[in-house]
Amino acid sequence: MIFARALTCVLMMTALHAKAETCETTSARAPLGLVFTRGTDLRQPVNVQWTLDKTNLKARFEVKTPTIHSKPVLGPGEYPYQFDVVEIFISVADPAQKNLPYYEFEVTPLGQTLQVKINDPKKKFEEGIDMGLKISTQKIAGGWTAEMTVPLENLNWNGRVSQITGNAYAILGKSPNRSFWSQFMPALPKPNFHQPQYFRPLFKCR
User: Residue 103 forms beta bridges with which residues?
Assistant: First the structure.
């Protein structure tokens, strides 16, 4: 009986806390900052905007670049991140789990995609998964746009907007002069996007 009462109190407190959460569902359009390059003339070429439509998380990218590094058909052992690409890393984990697991979604200007689940950045990733990603891309004057939509229920989201954390990224250009960009990650001595400590809440809540 005591346990049942205690559990009821906890559930009521959780429900009240969730009800009190007031969050924006559209972020400001934000530029990606340079993380690493061996040489690029690009200056803030990528912007991203996040939107939450009920349980669907949308990320819209606009990329300004004079040339597009892409390949119509990827061969064996080739991945989107080896060409021009935009990426989002998303976590809906409890704060105590330190953004683990998280999910990686990529799309190229030609609509090639990659979906990955990461339980631990130091362990083997789960590739070949389908989390229901929907994408659209379009070439525009001086660049291209991409939109990714992720149904958060497929990520076991609990409905708390404040618990949606992540980061946005882009990789542009040909080797050896590729450039690596991120919304929240600082400049680094070598490129490595798999650092969830740099994830941030995607929407403002109060």
Answer: 90, 117
Distance CA 77, CA 65 (A): 26
Confidence (pTM): 0.89
What type of residue is 174?
Answer: K
For 51-78, what is the mean pLDDT? Answer: 97
Q: Where are the domains of the chain?
A: 24-201
pLDDT over threshold 70, residue 3:
no
Asked if 150 and 129 touch (Cβ cutoff 8 Å), the reply is no
CA dihedral 122, 123, 124, 126 (to 10 degrees): -100
Topology annotation, domain 24-201: Immunoglobulin-like (2.60.40)
Whose tokens are 């618990």? That residue is 163
Pairwise CA distance, residues 127 & 124, whole Å: 9
Q: Tell how strand 179-182 and strand 102-107 pair up.
A: unpaired
In terms of DSSP bridges, do strands 33-37 and 113-118 run parallel, antiparallel, or are they unpaired? unpaired
Measured distance CA(180)–CA(32) in Å, rounded: 9
